[in-house]
Amino acid sequence: MWKAKDIMVKDVVAVPPSTSIIEVAQRMSKSRTGVACICHNGKFRGVITERDLVAGIVASARNPKREHAGSLVNNHHPMISPGTELLEAAKVMVDSAAQILPVVQNGRLLGLLTLDRLIRESPAVAAMVLCNNGRQTGPFMARKAGEGISTHRASPQIGVSKEEVASHER
């Protein structure tokens, strides 16, 4: 069976925690992606999603010129190792309602496993995520409040050591 490293997206938006929110949003827009990865001194620290930008900056009426990526980073997002089999990665997506999984090895970001890539490369495995026990989630369905990607709860870390998780949360 294929592994995360076989189909992950390697060209990702990665910025240090000191990057302004304006720059993060501009880089996400230019790259046509809904997620930015935060890395510090070569180590993966977490993600910022479009939802984080809306909820953390726009809805809170915070000034995006004064805020930095480090203030919004979600360091509880689930992550996987490059050797994680796609079926296991799909289970992580289902369990955490995530549509993207950072692929991390020895604390370093290697890429992202996205639901879109999973759909293209392994439709049967992706169907498991999309069906998600009858709940409608995924990029092709409208989300109601509380459905879809949730980046604000602790989630399993598959193939990642306890030390990596601890350093990731600092």
Topology:
Elements: H1 4-7, E1 14-15, H2 21-31, E2 35-40, E3 43-49, H3 50-58, H4 69-72, H5 86-96, E4 100-105, E5 108-114, H6 115-121, H7 123-131, H8 162-168
Parallel strand pairs: 1-2
Antiparallel strand pairs: 2-3, 4-5
Helix pairs in contact: 5-7, 6-7
CATH class category label: Alpha Beta
The residue ranges in which pLDDT falls below 50 over 5 or more consecutive positions are 136-158
Q: Which range best describes the helical content: under 10%, 10-25%, 25-40%, 40-55%, 55-70% or over 70%?
A: 25-40%
Oligomer: single chain
Number of domains: 1
The CATH homologous superfamily is termed CBS-domain
Distance between the termini: 34 Å
Description:
With 170 residues, this protein is of the alpha+beta class. The chain has a single domain (4-168), classed as CBS-domain (Roll). Helix content is 36%, strand content 16%. The chain is built from eight helices and five strands; from the N terminus they run αβαββαααββααα. It has helices at 4-7, 21-31, 50-58, 69-72, 86-96, 115-121, 123-131, 162-168; strands at residues 14-15, 35-40, 43-49, 100-105, 108-114. The strands form two sheets. Strands 1-2-3 form a three-stranded mixed β-sheet. A two-stranded antiparallel ribbon has the order 4-5. α5 packs parallel to α7 (123-131) and α6 (115-121) packs across α7 (123-131). It is globular.
Summarize this structure briefly:
36% of the residues lie in helices and 16% in strands. It is of the alpha+beta class and 170 residues long.
